[in-house]
């Protein structure tokens, strides 16, 4: 580790200068020889470095989004060459080259901050050995060796012996407990960051080598941190724990506000966006407009969550536009009641049911339309009343006429008459 740290000694001067400047500020508040002054100086160094790496983080997000747009093509390649793994890998690499992206782009922030990490390790190792490095002069070196973080010296390690720890003015038990707790927290934060990325922000419908790499890193990185953590000074453990917490918070923000399409995080995000849009009737933030615009541009290629979002807007009488805005749908805007007032959002015009017909109307076949005027309805009622007042003998005559042969009510075959002429003998009746 010392050999690797010496390779980044050219960054030792700027890193040590930044620590000294922060120590000057915090030393005036907490005292120059306290662990708070030196510990907060290291935390401030981490925050400064991560702020400077924000453009690189944005580039990482764009590269990740480019990988997500390639997932349909990746799926086609997997199906086409599912029996030829070598050809599948070659086609994947060709696709990455054409798109100008790479699965390893997610490791850019870690690679970019590694020189600062090794430079800090070089500075703290010099404090432990009593060697002046960079802007750490003799007075600052003596002050740093007196600083303790929860009873553990800033330059102490988990594997240090009792004699080494005693020279730094601490007990071996305090050093082991503090470093062990920091190592566990450091590994747990790294594992949680990778796990929330794999469980919430990954499209599980497409299996890619990128997903397999992320799954492997989820278990490999915590083990690596635990292995190297026992060799790190307390100051380096503070540095790495702080950067892990920063990464975890940054990842949670990205997953909540810019989720991967097809992931569980997108389902939760679109559910929140649906409630907001249906309540306010518009999309307010620029990031929300960008996501709505991307969903509209997909058309039939939308996933299940995106189709559900569009359908929810339609039910609420809203329509997503190509520019990412949301407006009232045309059909909803034209729907009005008879008195000229607009109907409520999400309601549809009620279909008018036809009026019930009388028995006389159903028998005669003269069904009255549903939209007749009251005068025509009254005349129909009078006509049915006249028919019901006919004499009884007229009704009997109509019944006899309907029962005659040839009238359509009963045929000759039904009355027992043969077509040839002779009558069929009647069967004896049963008494």
Task: Describe, in plain words, how this protein is organized in 3D.
The chain is an all-alpha fold and 431 residues long. The chain has 20 helices and four strands. The strands form two sheets. Strands 1-2 form a two-stranded antiparallel sheet. Strand 3 and strand 4 (326-328) form a beta hairpin. Helix 2 (12-30) packs across helix 3 (35-52) and helix 10 (172-200) packs parallel to helix 12 (234-257). The longest helix is centred in the middle third of the chain and has 29 residues, at 172-200. The N and C termini lie far apart (122 Å).
> How many angstroms does the end-to-end distance come to?
122 Å
Oligomeric nature of the chains = single chain
Percent range for β-strand residues: under 5%
Q: Please give the number of β-strands.
A: 4
**What structural category characterises the helix and strand content?**
mainly alpha
Biggest beta sheet summary: 2 strands, antiparallel
Mean model confidence by pLDDT: 75
Q: Reading side by side through the largest sheet, how are the strands ordered?
A: 1-2
What letter string, H or E per element, gives the SSE order? HHHHHHHHEEHHHHHHHEEHHHHH
Radius of gyration: 42 Å
Shape: elongated
**Uncertain regions spanning at least 5 consecutive residues:** 333-349, 367-379, 383-399, 402-421
Helical content (DSSP H or I, runs of 4+):
55-70%
Number of helices: 20
Which helices and strands, and how do they pair?
Layout: H1 2-7, H2 12-30, H3 35-52, H4 54-69, H5 71-80, H6 85-99, H7 108-129, H8 138-146, E1 148-149, E2 152-153, H9 162-167, H10 172-200, H11 209-229, H12 234-257, H13 264-280, H14 286-298, H15 304-315, E3 318-320, E4 326-328, H16 330-334, H17 359-364, H18 374-388, H19 392-403, H20 412-415
Helix pairs in contact: 2-3, 3-12, 5-6, 7-12, 10-11, 10-12, 13-15
């Amino acid at each position: 580790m010392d050999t690797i740290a010496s390779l980044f000694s050219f960054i030792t001067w700027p890193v040590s200068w930044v620590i000294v400047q922060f120590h000057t500020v915090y030393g005036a508040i907490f005292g120059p020889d306290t662990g708070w002054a030196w510990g907060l100086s290291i935390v401030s160094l981490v925050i400064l470095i991560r702020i400077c790496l924000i453009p690189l983080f944005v580039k990482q997000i764009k590269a990740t989004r480019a990988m997500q747009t390639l997932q349909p093509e990746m799926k086609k390649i997997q199906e086409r060459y599912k029996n030829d793994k070598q050809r599948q890998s070659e086609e994947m690499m060709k696709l990455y080259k054409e798109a100008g992206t790479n699965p390893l782009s997610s490791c850019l922030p870690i690679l970019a901050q590694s020189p600062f990490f090794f430079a800090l390790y070089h500075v703290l190792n010099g404090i432990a050995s009593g060697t002046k490095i960079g802007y750490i002069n003799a007075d600052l070196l003596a002050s740093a060796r007196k600083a303790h973080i929860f009873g553990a010296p800033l330059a102490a390690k988990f594997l240090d012996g009792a004699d080494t720890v005693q020279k730094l003015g601490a007990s071996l038990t305090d050093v082991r407990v503090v470093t062990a707790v920091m190592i566990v927290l450091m590994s747990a934060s790294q594992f949680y960051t990778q796990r929330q990325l794999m469980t919430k922000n990954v499209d599980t419908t497409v299996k890619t080598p990128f997903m397999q790499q992320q799954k492997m890193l989820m278990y490999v990185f915590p083990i690596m941190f635990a292995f190297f953590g026992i060799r790190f000074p307390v100051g380096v453990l503070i540095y790495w724990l702080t950067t892990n917490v920063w990464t975890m918070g940054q990842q949670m923000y990205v997953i909540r506000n810019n989720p991967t399409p097809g992931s569980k995080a997108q389902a939760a995000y679109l559910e929140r966006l649906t409630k907001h849009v249906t309540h306010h009737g518009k999309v307010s933030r620029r990031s929300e407009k960008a996501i709505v615009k991307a969903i509209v541009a997909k058309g039939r290629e939308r996933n299940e969550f995106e189709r559900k979002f569009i359908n929810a807007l339609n039910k609420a009488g809203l329509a997503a536009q190509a520019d990412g805005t949301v407006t009232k749908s045309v059909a909803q805007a034209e729907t009005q009641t008879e008195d000229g007032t607009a109907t409520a959002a999400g309601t549809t015009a009620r279909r008018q049911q036809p009026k019930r017909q009388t028995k006389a109307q159903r028998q005669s076949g003269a069904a009255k339309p549903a939209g007749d005027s009251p005068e025509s309805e009254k005349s129909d009622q009078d006509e049915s009343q006249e028919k019901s007042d006919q004499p009884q003998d007229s009704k009997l005559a109509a019944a006899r006429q309907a029962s005659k042969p040839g009238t359509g009510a009963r045929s000759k075959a039904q009355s027992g008459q043969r077509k040839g002429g002779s009558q069929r003998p009647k069967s004896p009746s049963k008494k």
